Amino acid sequence: MKKSGSILVWLSILTLCCSCNGIFSGIYDDPQTATGDDYGFISIDQSNNSGTIYIDATNYMQWTYIDFNKKSIEVKTIDTTNVNNNDIADAGIEEPQNWDFAVHRYDVKTNNGAAKATQFATLDELRNSATRPDGSDFTADIIGKVTVDMSNMMDGNIKYISSPINKVLSQWLDVNTSEMPPIYTLSKQVYFLHLANGEYAALLFSNYMNEKSVKGYITIDYIYPF
């Protein structure tokens, strides 16, 4: 996830105003509970190898793992026992045996895969073009910083862990924190995902909210195999 501006500037403003009867409550990204949603591969069109994935990524302490072959998702909780405020710590997590990519809030990682952005804004545009992935110019995961606890953000305390992150896929959403409230902007780009088994998928992250405008509920349209 890209961040524009300095979070420290508006955190200072929020801290000064935190006594204003909750006037700023929820403006950043507060996870909230929304019931009645179905998650996973909510639609599958076998005629053209496409479908839609819908996940609840509101919990900063969880990764959601997606397996194309089984058409399944699995949620795993990060062990933050030894994570201290404002440190970048190593933390354990029991990953599933089989998975292709995973989402943590707005961060994305792959299972020994790589990714590449395309110039297409819809899967239909990609499907109707002559574009085919050839394995070149793909970006593998690197070790990055992931936020796992923002409960004490108003006090300037945030918990981070180090984790593999795919910088290309994680650009699907820009969160501009120089404004208050922050501005969320979808990249509206289709991405190629090169899986470890040599296959390809096409991904379009089409929404980051549910129908109640609660952030962290992510819709992903896909073609697999591409």
| Strand residue percentage | 35-45%
Q: Rg, please?
A: 18 Å
What is the distance, rounded to the nearest whole angstrom, between the alpha carbons of the first and last residues? 25 Å
Estimate the global geometry from the Cα principal axes: globular
Structural class: mainly beta
Q: What's the total helix number?
A: 2
Q: Which series of helices and strands comes N to C?
A: EHEEEEEEEEHEEEEEEEE
User: Major beta sheet, specifics?
Assistant: 7 strands, antiparallel
Give the spatial strand order of the biggest sheet.
2-3-17-16-15-9-10
Short précis:
The protein is mostly beta strands.
Describe the 3D structure:
This protein is mainly beta and 226 residues long. The protein is 8% helix and 40% strand. It has two helices and 17 strands. The strands form four sheets. The chain has a seven-stranded antiparallel beta sheet, with no helix packed on it. It has a four-stranded antiparallel beta sheet with strand order 5-4-7-8, with no helix packed on it. Strands 1-13-14 form a three-stranded mixed beta sheet, with no helix packed on it. It is globular and about 50 Å long.
